[in-house]
Amino acid sequence: MEIVIVPSADEAGRVVAGIVARALAAGARTLGLATGSSPVGAYRELARQHREEGLSFAGVRAFLLDEYVGLPANHPQSYASVIRADLVDHVDLASDDVHGPDGAAPDVEEEARRYDDALRRFGPVDLQLLGIGTNGHVGFNEPGSSLDSRTRVATLTDETRRDNSRFFTGGEPVPRRVITQGLGTIRAARHLVLVASGRRKAAAIAAAVEGPVGSSCPASILQVHPHATVVVDEAAARLLERADRYRDGAGHAIPGRRS
Ligand code: GLP
Question: From the alpha carbon of 130, which atom of ligand 1 is closest?
Fold first, then answer.
């Protein structure tokens, strides 16, 4: 696992965008996209590179991690809408090539199975972007999720619903149920890249990177993945006991960064 500690959230976004751009240049054709605020800096930088430097997503197929149950795709907080606003509208990713579970499907259990089958058929995902919840969740795999779980309907914790309520305006409740790629589904990707910033993520990052591997901290699956990269700013890194060692190694892990 590579741990890259950078001074700011903006720099974390640039580092993650650099990893994505290099993967595309090396032939990656299947991207796993995360939503939420964590990857937004990376998406902004990828859009800039597309606009100013000719970075292209042509021929890339993208898969979302998760979706709220009950929100139609055109609801502003559906992850289908969020990824359009944050990335797809600003680059040359064809919207037909951006896939996600349909949270408004009449049979959401069946929809979860269909999405998992699609991931098996088109996968493995070459590069999977991840954020992390304050309780260590990835995708919407809350603590207690099986490490081998597949895409399924899951229930959010109150903590996650509280955290995500900042995106829902006018007192609209955060849906309780979601469809999420499972931890087993996510682990099938070739390269996992998790990005986090800010003090409120520090405990989750410490548990994910230096705590025991297990379902109490779903993001700890990165410790047992053959190719995982964690990019954090200083605030999110503040509880890492081995931060100095990671700083020493960062220049070797990420081409183009000084050691
Ligand atoms: C949501 C998403 C996760 C995301 C997490 C963190 O629950 N399902 O994929 O990683 O929130 O969100 P944020 O990046 O906004 O802090």
Answer: 10
The class (CATH top level) of 2-253 is: alpha beta
Locate the domains of the chain by residue range: 2-253
3-state secondary structure labels for all residues of 8-22 = CHHHHHHHHHHHHHH
The one catalytic residue among 11, 67, 111, 135: 135
Q: Nearest 5°: phi and psi at 4?
A: -115, 120
Which protein residue's CA is at the shortest distance from atom 5 of ligand 1?
Answer: 133
Nearest atom, ligand 1, residue 36 CA: 15
Judge if pTM exceeds 0.70. Answer: yes
Query: Active-site residue 99, yes or no?
Result: no
193-228 pLDDT, tens per residue? 999 999 999 999 999 999 999 999 999 999 999 999
